Amino acid sequence: MTADTLAAPRTPYAPRRSGPNLEKWGWIYMRVSGVLLVVLIFGHLFVNLMLGEGIHGLDFAFVVGKFASPFWQWWDVLMLWLALIHGANGMRTVTNDYITHPNARRVLVWAIWLAAGFLILLGTLVVFTFDPCLGVTSDSSLWDMCQA
What we know:
Layout: H1 22-50, H2 60-67, H3 70-98, H4 102-128, H5 143-147
Helix pairs in contact: 1-3, 3-4
C-alpha cells in the first residue's frame, strides 16, 4: 500500500493481542454496575430517608441497628465495592484518554487502582468489624447499652 491510499475501514491497525479483551469487559462492567448501583443507592436512600422517622431518625443508633443485620452489611458492602470499582474504572478511562506519556499513564492507573483497593479494604473492614461499644467509657451515653 502506498502513502496516498487509505486502508479499508475494517483493516486492523495492529495485530490483536491474545487473551481476554479487558476494554470490552470494562465497558460491560460499567453498564451492569451502573444499573445495580441505581437499585442499591435508591434502596439505601428509600430505607434511610422515607421509612420510619425520615431524616430525623438518622442517628448513631440507626446506624448501629442497620450494621447489626447481615443483610444491610452486605447491601452496604456491595454498594461500596461496586461504586469504588465503577469510579476507579471511569478514572482509568479518563487517564487513558488524556495522559499521553506512557509511564505517567501507567503510574496514575496503578495509583487509581491502589487507592480503590485500599478504600475497598478499609470500608469492608469498617462495615464488618463495626463495634459501637469500642472505647465507650462510664461517662458516655452509650455506657448502659454496652453493659448489657
